Amino acid sequence: MRDWLGEAKAKQVYLVLRDRILSGATDFGAKLPTENELAKSHGVSRVTVRRALGELARERLIERRRSAGTRVIYRSSPAPMTADITGVLANLAEMGRRTTVKLLSFAYVPAEGAAAQALGVGSGQLLQRSVRIRAVDGVPFSYLTTHVPESVSVTFNKQELASRPLLELLERAGVKAERARQRIGAVLASREVAEALDVRSGSPLIELVRVVYDQAGHGVEHLHALYRPDRYSLEIDLVRSGAADTKAWSPVVHRAGKNTKVPGTGIVKGKTKRSNSNTATLNE
């Protein structure tokens, strides 16, 4: 965000309006309320609103005309990727079919820090570290940093990682991915990440950290993924289950056109149709 925007209240108004435009809540061609109306609804002065609108106009999200008012000129990009959060290790090919990958870096680094600890790799060993960007319809939506133990990663090269999903390469090497643990949060984009994802430095991003384990319980992949929230979302289908007096929401896992319950929740299996053509699993 430009320093010109100045005061915090102007930034707040700007962020609210920008989010509504980028999310499609305020669509292309829609007319925004007047400065007086916006000032009243946000509890700020007209000067503050004018600063926020000026920044949106500079970003070519809106167009301001005295006679016609302020209209949205931003056209939404193709529908964002939506990931079924319960299908972590399923439907591997879907993500690869709908996205393109650019490999930014590929190297072997000393095993240290959070990735080494999560994978259970001791000091003195090496991890393969790679950084990739995934894009859909030419628009970048994810910034992926992965660490893989050297004993596994020597089975594939830089060129293969640039063209095939990592989990597919791991399975080709004989790794049987059994389970994964992941954490989802939010962070602000660093300058490097912002440039790669074509967003502003400091923009909010979805953060996902996942560790994949094989059948023996050994860590085989540590993923740190950053997603643009305007191009990617996470979803989960829930179903009510349990005894009448103890019913609770339980997640449904989608696999091969069927609903299967997460172990221990007792959901009856049944077929399902997904209408969102932009649904993809979380296999990176």
Overall description:
Residues 88-93 and 259-282 have low confidence and may be disordered. The protein is of the alpha+beta class and 284 residues long. The strands form 4 sheets. It has a 6-stranded antiparallel β-sheet. It has a 4-stranded antiparallel β-sheet with strand order 11-12-13-14, with no helix packed on it. The chain is elongated, with a radius of gyration of 23 Å. The protein has 3 domains: 3-72, Arc Repressor Mutant, subunit A (Orthogonal Bundle), CATH 1.10.10.10; 82-234, Chorismate lyase, CATH 3.40.1410.10; 237-280, no CATH class. Strand 8 and strand 9 (219-227) form a beta hairpin. It is built from 9 helices and 15 strands.
Order of helices and strands: HHHEEEHEHEEHHHEHEEEEEEEE
* Category by helix and strand content: alpha+beta
Q: How are the strands ordered across the major sheet?
A: 4-5-6-9-8-7
Q: What is Rg?
A: 23 Å
